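Notebook entry, structure prediction.
Reason for the run: the old model in the group folder had no record of what sequence produced it. Starting over properly, with the input documented here first.
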Amino acid sequence: MVWGGITAAGKTPLVTVHGNLMARQYIDEILCPYVVPAIHNQGLTFMQDNAPAHRARITNQFLYENNIPALHPSPPYSPDLNPIEHLWDLLDRRVRMREPQPQTLLQLERALHEEWDNIPQQAVQRLIGSMRLVPTMSGRHPFKRTSYTLLSV
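New structure, fully documented this time:
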């Protein structure tokens, strides 16, 4: 499995996660080194999907204690509301177009990292910009609009 985040200003490094991602590992290996600095340095709002590690009580407590503004919970089965889902699709297509195709997990990991690094920031900005007017659930304002200040994972 891989993890990555996007903003209108850039992509995070692609992080390879071996095995199932547990909440404590998610906090230690992803949120602390990548999400917290991006949120605090750039004033972003955090958006993630409904993966179990993302929904865990310890994860939500961590986000709260670290003043991470988050759009959640995401509606279930709504990948179209998260711009990174479209980037995962683009990454998948880029890897599938490679010749020769990766034959081992190590080759696949390398291909994913190379293609992630080669996705132009303009493509990321277009995806985020296209999501700007998608209604999202947000507390008392159920149809508050998203903005360019978003870290999507």
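Summary: Residues 2-152 form a domain with the Nucleotidyltransferase; domain 5 fold (CATH 3.30.420.10).
The old model has been moved to the deprecated folder.
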